[in-house]
Design goal:
Helices cover 35% and strands 14% of the residues. With 346 residues, the chain is an alpha+beta fold. It folds into three domains: 103 residues, no CATH class; 89 residues, no CATH class; 123 residues, Orthogonal Bundle (Tetracycline Repressor, domain 2). The strands form three sheets. Strands 1, 2, 3, 4, 5 and 6 form a six-stranded antiparallel sheet that branches. A hairpin with a 2-residue loop joins β8 and β9. α3 runs antiparallel to α4. The longest helix has 18 residues.
């Protein structure tokens, strides 16, 4: 199955670009039928429901959807992996990695294949052992069923990378030739000669991430009738979590209650973003343990859900996810404060 596009969805007037491909979906009778899997730049994934990359993994693991046709017999096992012209089989885990790559590409960020090429160029320019090991890891980060296509070489396929990924004295793929220093040098020469093939190199920008982004995280709206759990987790990032916020001379039990009390403007929509940003800054500045939870999300996109807030704040088919975006902004500001020698803003 190939990816097709473009497609998109409109979220509160904002167009979110996407792609789609066919998958097999299990019906009520237990039989499978072909359906569309939609993948969007904001990390949303739609098939039988709107979910995220983690949710896609659960759907695949449960068998509710399949990236390959269920019941179709597996191809016969090749007698030699090294001599085989066939790539690795598509697995649910590999498909999740491929979808994550598609989301990166929709956002103009480097995919695992792009990062593999970056590692190739570093090794080509400075063929040290540490750069070879970094290249091996970058190659292994590519979805297994996509590795055969990384170099775009129909004759050699990914064999040069498999050779470099193998230590000297070890057989490639377990049943191939034993790698020598001369073979590593031959492969290095191959990359030097093939430099023109890298003419499609993706443009890099100074503020591009240096590593792959974390999958999106969903901040679910939950109910705790027996009280909030003692062990802190992502639920503390929710506005309704009871963390007192001091604004001026007033103390509010939570961001939710502070926002409700302070939205006394003739046109609340004109100030809501600024007000919410200030409240979130206060919450995490006044509660270091909660700031640590926010920082632990890395550079993941934060999806804020729930029916208790308007579509402006939440992540949904008709929502704009501004609470998720503001949490990402505050997280970035916390990183700046932590890295600044004087603990201040740049």
């Amino acid at each position: 199955m190939t990816w097709r596009g473009p497609t998109y969805r409109v979220v509160d007037g904002e167009r979110i670009e996407g792609l789609w491909r066919h998958v097999w979906r299990r019906g009520w009778s237990g039989t499978y039928y072909v359906d569309d899997l939609l993948v969007f730049a904001d990390g949303a994934i739609g098939c039988e429901e709107l979910t995220d990359i983690a949710g896609l993994g659960r759907l695949l693991a449960s068998g509710r959807i399949s990236a390959t046709e269920p019941g179709r017999g597996d191809l016969p096992v090749e007698p030699s992996k090294w001599r085989s012209r066939r790539g690795e089989p598509l697995t649910p885990e590999g498909f999740v990695l491929e979808v994550a790559d598609r989301i990166e590409a929709l956002n103009g960020r480097p995919t695992t294949a792009d990062r593999c090429w970056d590692a190739i160029r570093r090794y080509r320019d400075e063929p040290t052992e540490s750069n070879r090991l970094a290249l091996r890891q970058a190659y292994r980060n590519v979805p297994p069923h996509r590795r055969i296509h990384v170099l775009g070489d129909m004759d050699r396929q990914d064999r040069p990378l498999r050779i470099l990924a193998t230590d000297i004295g070890q057989p490639v793929d377990g049943d191939g030739p034993v790698v020598t220093a001369f073979m590593h040098q031959q492969t290095l020469d191959y990359f030097i000669r093939a430099d023109g093939a890298a003419s499609t190199e993706r443009i890099r920008y100074p503020d591009d991430p240096v590593g792959p982004s974390r999958p999106a995280l969903t901040l679910h709206e939950t109910v705790h009738p027996q009280g909030w759990p003692e062990t802190l987790d992502l639920f503390v990032l929710r506005n309704e979590y009871p963390s007192a916020v001091v604004i001026g001379n007033e103390t509010y039990p939570s961001v939710t209650e502070a926002y409700a009390s302070l939205t006394g403007h003739e046109d609340p929509s004109a100030i809501r973003l600024s007000l919410m940003a200030d409240l979130l800054r206060a919450k995490f500045a006044q509660h270091a343990e909660l700031a640590e939870i926010l920082l632990s999300t890395g550079d993941a996109r934060l999806s804020y859900t729930g029916s208790s807030v308007s579509s402006f704040w939440r992540d949904a088919p008709d929502g704009r996810n501004w609470l998720g975006r503001l949490l990402e902004l505050v997280r970035s500001e916390l990183v700046v404060v932590r890295r600044s020698p004087d603990g201040g803003r740049v």
